[in-house]
């Protein structure tokens, strides 16, 4: 037991040293560039807004999503202007790109994969191997499933074309990328992609909720350097951020989260219960945050800031679409569907009362 404790301490010291080297490197690097980055500051209000987008993207009625009239499309997200809605049928993924005037930002949200049961998905997550080299970065590895879901599905071309259109319509604004669970993993890869594609002058913020680990320590460090304005919100005993597992005896060989985690948890003093948001250290694997508790809760995975995450129906990969909406979209050979707002038309207005049942896929 004593030996084990010393090993952990030694590894933590190594990690601390490594992470400070990393920060040093980043600072030195930025001295050559035009702008010095301040450490990103966590904004609670922003988190409670973005979580609503990460929740709404689970809705299966595409017409209601496109016109932003779904049951989760109100409150702080009211007035959101949808630019593009993407559905990848083969991978069972969904995402959208739009403009939020109150944030003065393009908001991009991803839905995770909708497996038949979240339990099965979580169990599979345990066994995911680091089996895919992240291109262009020596030693950076990710899981091929996460990588392909973003880079090899119909979502990436959809996102890139919508961002181009959004910049034409709204000028050079911030981009905020969000998602929950598997959708968080996709949001992270998308944020990284946008920074690499659009260049470092494009402000890209990533905020994910209940996101699994994506890659190894080299990938995490690279990610932090390219997308420093990133927050990974975790909740209580949510099991998903604990997966795929992190083995602290082999910090260079295992999955490793990127920073910065924000852990929402409750503290009880007698009959008083407080909700606390802890902004964690810059290592990505702060042992005093969600790693200090066991990841044994699916219920904690399904609510963030009191907002219901995930699908509210049990059927898998259902798409409900008004036939009139399909006139605005296009379907590719694999059955993937994209609705892109036509900038020459005014905002699409559909009467969502009196419509037909729509089609299910
Ligand atoms: C936090 O975000 C909200 C919503 O975007 C914004 O109105 C507010 O000014 C931000 N607060 C700080 C301190 O940046
Ligand atoms: C991407 O998907 C295509 C078609 O499903 C497949 O042939 C190809 O091998 C995939 N690429 C990677 C890198 O896995
Ligand atoms: C689904 O959402 C509706 C409206 O938000 C709610 O009334 C209903 O109880 C939810 N169903 C489930 C199974 O959570």
From TrEMBL:
<dbReference type="GO" id="GO:0006629">
    <property type="term" value="P:lipid metabolic process"/>
</dbReference>
<dbReference type="InterPro" id="IPR029058">
    <property type="entry name" value="AB_hydrolase_fold"/>
</dbReference>
<feature type="domain" description="Fungal lipase-type">
    <location>
        <begin position="107"/>
        <end position="246"/>
    </location>
</feature>
<protein>
    <submittedName>
        <fullName>Alpha/beta-Hydrolases superfamily protein</fullName>
    </submittedName>
</protein>
<keyword id="KW-0378">Hydrolase</keyword>
<dbReference type="InterPro" id="IPR051218">
    <property type="entry name" value="Sec_MonoDiacylglyc_Lipase"/>
</dbReference>
<dbReference type="InterPro" id="IPR002921">
    <property type="entry name" value="Fungal_lipase-type"/>
</dbReference>
<dbReference type="GO" id="GO:0016787">
    <property type="term" value="F:hydrolase activity"/>
</dbReference>
<keyword id="KW-0732">Signal</keyword>
<dbReference type="Pfam" id="PF01764">
    <property type="entry name" value="Lipase_3"/>
</dbReference>
<feature type="signal peptide">
    <location>
        <begin position="1"/>
        <end position="21"/>
    </location>
</feature>
């Amino acid at each position: 037991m004593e030996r084990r404790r010393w090993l952990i301490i030694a590894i933590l010291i190594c990690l601390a040293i490594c992470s400070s080297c990393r920060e040093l490197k980043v600072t030195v690097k930025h001295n050559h560039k035009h702008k010095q980055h301040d450490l990103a500051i966590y904004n609670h209000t922003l988190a409670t807004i973005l979580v609503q987008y990460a929740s709404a993207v689970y809705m299966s009625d595409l017409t209601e999503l496109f016109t932003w009239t779904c049951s989760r499309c109100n409150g702080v997200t009211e007035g959101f202007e949808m630019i593009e809605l993407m559905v990848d049928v083969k991978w069972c993924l969904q995402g959208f790109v739009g403009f939020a005037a109150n944030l003065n930002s393009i908001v991009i949200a991803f839905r995770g994969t909708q497996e038949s049961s979240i339990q099965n998905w979580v169990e599979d997550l345990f066994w995911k191997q680091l089996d895919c080299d992240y291109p262009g970065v020596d030693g950076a590895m990710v899981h091929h499933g996460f990588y392909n879901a973003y880079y090899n599905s119909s979502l990436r071309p959809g996102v890139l074309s919508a961002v181009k259109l959004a910049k034409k319509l709204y000028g050079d604004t911030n981009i905020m990328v969000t998602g929950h669970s598997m959708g968080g993993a996709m949001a992270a890869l998308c944020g990284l992609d946008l920074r690499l594609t659009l260049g470092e002058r494009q402000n890209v913020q990533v905020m994910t909720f209940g996101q699994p680990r994506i890659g190894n320590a080299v990938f995490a460090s690279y990610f932090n350097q390219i997308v420093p304005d990133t927050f990974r919100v975790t909740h209580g005993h949510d099991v998903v951020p604990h997966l795929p597992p992190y083995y602290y005896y082999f910090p260079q060989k295992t999955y490793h989260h990127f920073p910065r985690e924000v852990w929402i948890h409750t503290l009880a003093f007698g009959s008083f219960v407080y909700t606390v948001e802890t902004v964690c250290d810059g290592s990505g694997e702060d042992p005093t945050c969600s790693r200090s508790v066991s990841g044994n809760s699916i219920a904690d995975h399904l609510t963030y800031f009191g907002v219901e995450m995930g699908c509210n129906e049990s059927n898998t990969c259902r798409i409900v679409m008004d036939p009139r909406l399909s006139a605005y979209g296009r379907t590719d050979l694999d059955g993937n569907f994209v609705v892109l707002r036509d900038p020459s038309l005014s905002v699409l207005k559909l009467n969502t009362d009196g419509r037909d049942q729509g089609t299910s896929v």
